Amino acid sequence: MKSNYHPVRLMLLVLTLSQTTNSLATEAIFNQAGGALSSTQLVSAVLAANPQLEVVQAIWQATASRIEQESALDDPMLVHSMAPQTIGNQQNGFSQSTEISQKIPWPGKLRLRGEAAGFEADAANENIAVLRLVLSSTAKSLFADWYYIHQAIEINRINQTLLAEFRDIAVTRYSTGLASKQDALSAEVEIVLLEHQAIVFERERRTILARLNTLLNRLPDESLPPPSKLPEISALPDAKSLHNNALQARPELKELAARIQASKTQTELAKRAFYPDLNLSAGYNSFWDRSEQRFILGVGINLPLDQGKRHAAETEARARMKQVEWNSIDQMAKIREEVQIAYERTDESMHVFRLYQKQLLPLADETLEAAIADYQAGRGDFLTLISSEKNRMQTQLQTEQALADTHRRIAELESAVGSLEPLPVVDRSEAMQP
Q: How far is residue 234's CA from residue 349's CA, in Å, rounded to a whole number?
């Protein structure tokens, strides 16, 4: 019974060492991040640590192992026969025969089987690239969430401080008879509401942290460095060039191309099924009295008489090849659509961000400054001041949300194009800054 535990212990040891290696690689990336974490560093850490990649790599290794199996000859057959009643026969001796035989497929069959398995392995290998794209896009989107929630928490903190100052001003003006107690109470209510919002933001921060740590194969509550600032998007590449790049880079199309080659090989293999396989044999038979008759050489073939099933197999192979070819055409159309939709959404998000950054946020700042000046001069009421402050805070949050949304859309566009590297929409050195 003890020997049964060794494979289990070995497997556990390998898994533990793999997890430890991934953890050390992840922590090394975070140590390089210093005080802040960039999107590029997060993507690198996810691709180094996510266990889903190990799953698809194991699937690819299993598929690649089929190549040698499919291209190898069948095991030779050894047959030994004897006549039990001749045991101890002093006159004629003990009679027995031994024969060894080897099946030799028709020339080209083994090669085609190996090639078909090789193309299937190539297709499985592209699944690794597909998953890397998915993980990269997910990590970039979560990084945008990570950035936004930190900005939201900071905006909330600043506005709590500002409202506390407004409350102090209202209390001072109330003590001198220049304002009503209602002003101070209104400010206190707004502060409490911001405190509640801060609790919601903190809960959202922990939720995003748990999702990030899951991607990184870490405990949900492990700490992560704060995010670096998201760079602003200056412009998008030409849409036509992105379409062309997608048709060249998307691993789904490469996978289908490999499957098309595998189907063509299977079709050619189905044609070879009409030809017989050989069976070579050699043996020694002591049943024969004459010694020159005892050594035997033989050649055998199978008789492919049932042509119907072979025609059906060839038809099936051709149909499957057509299926994969049409799947490839359909996938190309879907990729074009996916790139165009992602492009339009990204372009829209960029316009929305510029609208908030260039127009709405400056207007909200000016409105708040005017409200503060009017209230301090006795020309405005406290309700207008509070309303202006709330509007400015909401505009700040929406501006940061628009920037985060733009980067989410960029992540979708990069995934649609099939690029792990950032698109040339911002200065690379700026994007890498912590």
A: 12
